[in-house]
Amino acid sequence: MGEPGGEQGRAIEIQIQTAAVIGTGTMGRQIAALIAASGRSVRIWDADAGMLAAAKERIADETRTLPELPRYAHHRFAIRPPADLDGLLGRITAAESLADAVSGADIVIEAVREDLETKKTLFSELSRLAPQAILTTNSSSLPSSQIASAVEDPGRFLNTHFFAPIWSRPMVELMGSGSTRPEVMEAVARFGRSLGLVVAVVRGDSKGFIINRVWRAVKREALRVVDEGHADPADVDRLWMLYFGTPYGPFGNMDMVGLDVVSDIETSYQNVATDPEDRPSAVLGRKLAAGELGEKTGRGFYRHPEPEYLREGWLTGEDRSNS
Ligand SMILES: NC(=O)c1ccc[n+]([C@@H]2O[C@H](COP(=O)([O-])OP(=O)(O)OC[C@H]3O[C@@H](n4cnc5c(N)ncnc54)[C@H](O)[C@@H]3O)[C@@H](O)[C@H]2O)c1
């Protein structure tokens, strides 16, 4: 990373050429693919050896299939992955260790589970292992200010919140830790734009990102009407899809995110909620207990990879196979 300073008092822009992505779940794989698509090299690492071993094959598969999924066809600002998939994959290296992953990286992007203590432990290690790099978290609901105490130099730390599928939702929200240096924010904003993303900077310190807060309100109420027995998930989605003209509804989207991730994010909000009604959802709890985590396990509120809501007649209620 080029240090700010400079000729005749002019600040030299921080350049981001190489990246490390920690966590090769839903988000980490897609972030790594997008960075590699920009021509940069990226090292990946996951604490789960099985996840890491499978990551490149899954990246290849997802980069081929995710941008083509019919349910995202209405997303107008999609990014097309490069035709040279082998070239893209060649720029991604599964690292031997966390230290190996971050060695020489200009930016380290964390995409591990949404749990404050897990993230703090990781960032305290990253501070030591990557003393020069910009460090970012992809957390959906934890402001970077909460994690910053674990980072030795919070001036080079911020939240970069990407979205899945990254190709169809080409945007990233940035939120500083309160002490993120302006030149670091600017470098990451330029980096985001160079990946083809629309960059939005969240002002101040928000409990959750902009889209996440809005989406959280929808998700909380969708779960609540089902918990209260007023509707089943399929009917909530039908009404939503007809009202907003979208190809999936809130429960379809939760399946895509992963119900374990949804639950972690809900817990993070509930931990600071002032509304006593804001408590864990029973229907979500039942899904977790059954190991039905959405697309990633082949079953959630729907069956995957061909969820019922894509079937002919499902939206109009003629096919009520999962109702
Ligand atoms: N899924 C989404 O749509 C989405 C969207 C935006 C942001 N996020 C956020 O991105 C982050 C990752 O979410 P995800 O959906 O990719 O989760 P995921 O469960 O699919 O993947 C998390 C990965 O992190 C690994 N991991 C856990 N602890 C680790 C550690 N200490 N070191 C290294 N690897 C570790 C796990 O083995 C797993 O492979 C979360 O903070 C989540 O809130 C998710």
Stretches with pLDDT under 50, minimum 5 residues: 2-9
> In angstroms, what is the radius of gyration?
20 Å
Which CATH class of the largest domain is shown? Alpha Beta
Number of helical elements: 12
Task: Let me know the number of strands.
Answer: 8
**Gross morphology:** globular
Bound molecules: nicotinamide-adenine-dinucleotide
So, the CATH homologous superfamily of the largest domain? Answer: NAD(P)-binding Rossmann-like Domain
Could you say what the CATH architecture of the largest domain is?
A: 3-Layer(aba) Sandwich
Strand proportion, as a percent range, falls in: 5-15%
- Biggest beta-sheet profile: 8 strands, mixed
Mean pLDDT across residues: 92
- Along the chain, the helix and strand elements come as EHEHHEHEHEHEEHEHHHHH
Strand order of the largest sheet: 3-2-1-4-5-6-7-8
Task: State the helicity in percent bands.
Answer: 25-40%
Overall structural class, as computed from helix and strand content, comes to alpha/beta
Number of domains: 2
Rounded to the nearest angstrom, the distance between the terminal CA atoms is 54 Å
Output the CATH topology of the largest domain: Rossmann fold
